[in-house]
């Protein structure tokens, strides 16, 4: 679990505690739950984009080294 996942889990627990203690209105709890859900989705998209970028950058450097090797021959 990375740092962002830990934060989201903590926020989810805090929201659940507020709901349990009746310290938040139904409307506010629904809104907060939606925001947390959107953050989770965004985090997942961010992770997938990072993987794609890393993969592309590693492939790019391989291609550059292959080209460099071909030119050196």
Number of helices: 2
Structural class: mainly alpha
Let me know the number of strands: 0
Which band does the percent of strand residues land in? Answer: under 5%
User: What's the rounded overall pLDDT mean?
Assistant: 87
What sequence of helices (H) and strands (E) makes up the elements?
HH
Helix fraction, binned, reads over 70%
The main sheet comes to: none
Please compute the radius of gyration using only Cα atoms.
Answer: 22 Å
Shape: rod-shaped
Low-confidence stretches: none
Distance between the termini: 47 Å
Please tell me about this protein's structure.
With 73 residues, the protein is mainly alpha-helical. It has helices at residues 3-20, 26-72. α1 packs antiparallel against α2 (26-72). The protein is rod-shaped. It starts with a helix and ends with a helix. 0% of the residues are buried. The model has no long low-confidence stretch (mean pLDDT 87).
Looking at this protein, list some descriptive labels.
73 residues; mainly alpha; 2 helices
Task: Describe the protein's topology.
Layout: H1 3-20, H2 26-72
Helix pairs in contact: 1-2
Please summarize what this structure is:
The protein contains 2 helices and no strands.
């Amino acid at each position: 679990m990375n740092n962002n996942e830990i934060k989201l889990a903590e926020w989810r627990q805090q929201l659940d505690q507020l709901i349990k203690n009746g310290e938040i209105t139904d409307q506010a709890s629904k809104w907060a739950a939606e925001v947390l859900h959107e953050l989770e989705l965004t985090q997942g998209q961010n992770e997938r984009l990072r993987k794609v970028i890393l993969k592309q950058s590693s492939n790019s450097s391989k291609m550059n080294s292959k080209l460099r090797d071909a030119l050196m021959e």
